[in-house]
User: What shape does this take?
Amino acid sequence: MRTAGPVIRRRNDEANGALIGYLPVGFPTLDESVEAAVALVENGVDVLELGLPYSDPVMDGPVIQAATQQALANGFRLTHGFEAVRRITERTDAPVLIMTYWNPVVQYGVDRFADDLAAAGGAGLITPDLIPDEAGEWIAAAERTGLDRVFLAAPTSSDARIRRAVDASRGFVYAVSTMGITGARTDVDQAARQLVARLSDAGAPASCVGLGISTAAQVAEVLEYADGAIVGSALVNALATGGVPAAGALAAELARGTRRE
Amino acid sequence: MALRAQTGPYFGDFGGRFVPESLIAALDELGEAYDLAKLDPGFGAELAELGRSYTGRPSIITEVPRFAAHAGGARVILKREDLNHTGSHKINNVLGQALLTKRIGKTRVIAETGAGQHGVATATAAALFGLDCVIYMGEVDTERQALNVARMRLLGAEVVAVKAGSRTLKDAINEAMRDWVTNVATTNYIFGTVAGPHPFPEMVRDFQKIIGEEARQQVLDLTGALPTAVAACVGGGSNAIGIFHAFLDDTDVALYGFEAGGEGVDTERHAATITRGRPGVLHGARSYLLQDDDGQTIESHSISAGLDYPGVGPEHSWLSAIGRATYRPVTDAAAMNALRLLTRTEGIIPAIESAHALAGTLELGRELGPDATILVNLSGRGDKDMDTAATYFELYDQENPK
Ligand SMILES: Cc1ncc(COP(=O)(O)O)c(C=O)c1O
Assistant: This one.
C-alpha cells in the first residue's frame, strides 16, 4: 500500500521536506481535477490531498467553498472521489489522501468507505471535523485496511490532546498553522513552529503544517521546522483562474521551497 | 435513571463533538465554566434576577377557550413566552450564555439566527453587558425578517448576510463557526438552540427548562392536575425541550413536537427532520438530518425562518428513538391558518414558528377529546412576521403595496 509516511521521510532525507498539495475532486470538472492533480505531481508535489466537496464545509474559506460548491452544482458524487483516486494513482507514484468532512463517510458506511478507498489505491483519510475521541470506528477500519489516518492538532490543543492526536494518527499529524480556516495568508503563524515542537515532543513521527501557505518562501520557512508543507487555497485559486497549466506552474514554483540550497 | 438527569455529550446514540480540533479548547473552556456556574449559587441567583427584572419571568399561562372550541373541545393552555422581553423564549438562553461570556472574560459574542429572534436576543444582551456583537443570518432570512435585522442594528450589532449554500440558518451556523475558529481567543459563540456540539445541547436546554418548570406548577395550580399533553414547535428544538424537560419523567404526560412540514412531507420542500430524515452528523453533533444518499445536507423549506433548518437537537432524536416524545409535521398552510385562528379568537398574534404548535394542537385536541388538557408553548410573538402574514393573507392595500 502506498501511504504518506515513507514519502515524507524520503523527502526529508533528500530535500527540506515534503510538499503536499490540495485540490477538490470535481472542480472545475472531474476530468480537469484529475488532470490538475497529475500536473501537481509532475511539477514537484509529493503527496496529494483530494478534497470531497461537501454541503457544509465549516473549515473552508471562500476560495475552497466556491470551488466545492461549483463541483456539487456540477453533480459531484462520492463515487467520483474513488474514481479520481484510481485515475491519479494509475498515472503517478504519489500517495493520494482523501480529505473529507465526516458525514459523507458515515452515510457511505465507514468500513465500506475504507475498503473502496483502499481498493482504489488511496493512502488514507484526513478528517477535519472528526476528533480522535469520536473516531473509534474509523480507527478500527484504518487499522484493518492499513490506510493512513490524519488527525488535526491546533495551537490551542492541550498537551493531552496533542498526545491523543499523535497516538491516533498514522502517516502524519496535520498541524493547523494558525487559528482559522483555509485561505492564503501573508504570514504563516509563529504558532505553527511551537505547535510542531510540541508534536515532536509528544513523539509524532511526522508533522505537516497547513492553512495559509501560498508561496515558495513560506514553504521553505515551514520546512525549517516541519516535515511537510500543505498548500490548498493558492492552488485552487490558480486552477480557477488559469486552469491546469497555472496550477502546474504554481506547484513548480512552490516546489522550489523544498530544495536544499 | 430519570430521563431528566440525562446530560451530554451523548443522548443515547446522538450528540457528541464533531468539530475541528481548533474549537475543542473553546468548547472545553465553555463546558468547564458552565459546570462551575451550575454549582455556584451566585450564578443561579444572578440569572434568576435577570429573568425577573429584565425578561419578565415567570411568564404567565393563558387558557384559550375560544381557540380550544376548534380543538375538539379539549382545554388549551398557552405558556406565554411571547411576552418575554424581545418577544420569544430565546432570551432565556442568551442571558445565561452572556453571563458565562463575562465569566470566561471574553469581550465579543457571535451568534447565528434564522427568524432573527435569537439574533435580537443576543444583540440585546450584548447591549446590556457592553459586548461587541456580530450576528450571522442567511440572506434569505434577512429579507423575510427585515424588521429583526433593523432591530439588531439599532441595538448596535453588526449583521452579516450569509450568501453561501442555501442562504438560511444552516449556512449562518457554518459562517459563525468559521468566525469562532478564527477569533476564538476573544470571542464566545452564543448558540441559539439545543443542537451543535457538546456542551450546547445540554447547556441551552438547562437555560430553557425554566419554561416547563414554571408551566408545570402553573397548570397544576389552575387545573389541579398535570396536562394530558404538552405541545411545542421544533426547529433546532430549544423551546420544545424547554417545555418538555420538567415533564420527561411524568410518564402520563404525552409530549408532542411539531416540525415544519412546509409544502408537505411528500414534497421536497419541508423541514421535518425527524419525520423524514435519518441519523447523520451536522454542525458538531450526531442527530437526525435531512440528507441525500451521499450525506450532503438537503436544503430545508418552511414559511417560518426559525424552523427552516435541516437538523435537530440530539436530545430530541433520542426522545424520539426511545418513544418518549412524538414528532409530527405541520404544513405551512396549517400553521398560517392556526396563526389567524388564534389571532381572531383570542386576540393573540403568535410567531409563525409557534403557530406550528397551535396547528398541531388543533389536530391533537380532536384526537384526545374534550377531557384532555393541552399545554402549548407559545414560543414567540408574531410582530416580526407581519410582512409574511400580510403577503400570505393579502392584507396590504392593492393600490399601495406596503
Ligand atoms: C418564536 C420562535 N419559536 C421557535 C423557534 C425555533 O427554535 P427552537 O426550535 O430552538 O425553539 C424560533 C427560532 O428562531 C423562534 O423565533
